[in-house]
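Contributing new records

If you add data, match the layout below exactly. Sequence lines come first and carry their own label; structure lines follow with theirs. Keep one chain per record. Anything else will be rejected by the validation script.
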Amino acid sequence: MCTEPDSYSKYIYSKFLEKNIGDPGLFKGTLLLEKQIINQIGKLLFYSRCSGFVVSGGTEANIMAMWSARNYSKQINPEVLVPSHSHHSLDKAANLLGIKLIKIPCIDGIVDSNSVKKRINRNTIMVVGVAGTTPLGLIDPIPELSDIARDDSLLLHVDASFGGFIIPFLKNTKYSLPLYNFKFPGVTSISLDSHKMGSAPIPSSCILFRNKNLINNIKTNVGYLSGGSEPRPTLLGTSPGASIITLWTLLNLHGQLGYRKIALRCMENTNYLFDELLKIRDISVINKPVLNIVGFKINSNHNLIVKDLRQKGWSISIFPTHIRFVLMPHINRKHVDSFIKDLKTLIKKHSK
């Protein structure tokens, strides 16, 4: 679900390969840029005073959210409630941290908030909602989850790894979507991947916390660092400063207007694909797209056609219920037309 990095960003990244932000005191300029990034994204998410870091990806970000929640709560047998559609990085985090993960059922692809409420007990430390689900790009009811978290004094992490860099830029457009941000008081942390629609080179993701106390519980001192005794409280030690410098450059190069153009182009192509698929008799589309993901089924000879599509070079994802086509910024109308042509040809071939 990544995309071709911005061409200028590749040049910038290559100029700072030696910078290791794992020793932040040694690279103070890079550290300052990271703080400015978090401030900019915080403003976008309605809370400029948040704290956070540029990290390697959604997996590290989600692990940090659960790590900080476990240490902050000091619960002996911690449990975290996650949607059944949640990303597998949360399973990794639970396994590493000794947290029991409670999978909450979904209704029409989004988590059932009533079931969330029913599963809360004295061991529950955090609830997780997703803004841009992996299977279909749907958005969990974050306002409802925020109310639940507030009422039960729980943390609420929003995994916006996929939707984080597109949802805010579609505000006040015809694609205006439900929000997932710090505007909702129960939201305590958010992860979003800048190497997706942020068009930054891999690795590049962000984790933001509403409260610094959540970070203080995962800090450690390292006396031998050249720049000082306090490293960044991230999961990784060695981390590319180039990712920070490049993301800072992109945020200031594109600005909100530039990212809005990228988001709108993705959604226009997504809806074009959706409309074209509806015209094919042997195709069933799962739902009208919410973000730039289309899910569909082939009603006959499904496995044979999927195999042939992959042999033709189409990198489609297969779920038990559907095929997923993700329309990232590097995908254009010609790609969609080519895919539809191949799909129609293969359906005709295997219907004989």
